[in-house]
Fold Transporter.
Amino acid sequence: MIGIAAAWRAVAAMFILNGALFGIWASRIPAVRDHLGLTHEALGYGLLFMAAGAVCSFPVTGRLTDRFGAVSITRVIAVLYTLSLILLALADSFWALAGFLFVFGAFHGSMDVAMNAWAAEVEHAYDKPVMSSFHAMWSLGAGLGALSGYGAVQVGLTVMQHFLLMGGIVVALTLALSRVRWTSRKASSSGAAVFALPSGALILVGFTALCGALGEGAVADWSAIFLRDVTGAEESIAALGYAVFSVTMVAFRLAGGFVISRFGPVATARFGGVCAAMGVFTVVSTAEPALALIGFALMGIGYAVIMPLAFSRAASDLNVPPGQAIASVATLAYGGLLIGPPLIGFLAEMLTLRLAFAALLPLAVLIVLLSGALRPARLD
């Protein structure tokens, strides 16, 4: 069990890094938006490139993970992902930002697939649901990254200074903590589709994950802008939106193993969908920053276990190798982000940002309706 515990810590460190870099970026979106003078619509289209980079990376990473093993692929991408964060601070125009976001999104998505495949291996060795604990570490990292944005604004760090300092600290600590001997499963990718799309039962799994990913992405990309533009919060307070969301997500993901074991994945997902819906309603129905933060907290609870359950279900599929299965579900889930960011930006320009956020409400309800698809294949 000592070896398993060390493997858990190594994978957890990778999830923390992935979340931290994303949270660091998310916390400074208002600063980058203001520096480049972007409208809501323009920012939405810029974020589209990040989603596109992630989706394009999924099938390639899934095949590489199955062929070479999740451990080695995860470690290499961790370094490249950190370097791509620095690029974002160099953007001096919309198109420069779009290009750098594509690269950042590609490494973010690649690491997502590889580290979830590694996590599935460790979960299989534990023989109990621990996937949500890894995703709790992702949320912890994202929350700490977002909080670093609050601190950076308070002390007057530029975006470049912030990214260099925090990126360097996070990657150094992560690589140190992830040193462990672990032999990953390998599988042949011959005959696999070039572009990973789910099939059979994985289609509904992917659609359920899509609803959760859209909600998570909306909070990450737009919570700071929402708090600043809709509720009138100061920039330092606006950066707390994603931090609050991540804190509650961490708490529920840490409790997720017990909750899933006690009530099952289907009931847990349904509860998550209800909480997410309540959170969205709270956010869009208030003009007070404090109440909006409560709404984001509820959304954190609601979306907490959706992606972990989806990846666990994909990894347990009886017909598709784990790397390809996870990549296929991730493709559909994050594929929703291809239309999510620009859609919210477009709706914000045509209507209001408040009404644009309200579009997440029916998606939360859909999680409730599709939750049955998250029952593990081995229990079918």
In short: The radius of gyration is 19 Å. The chain is about 80% helix and 0% strand. Residues 190-194 have pLDDT under 50 and may be disordered. The chain has one domain: 2-183+194-379.
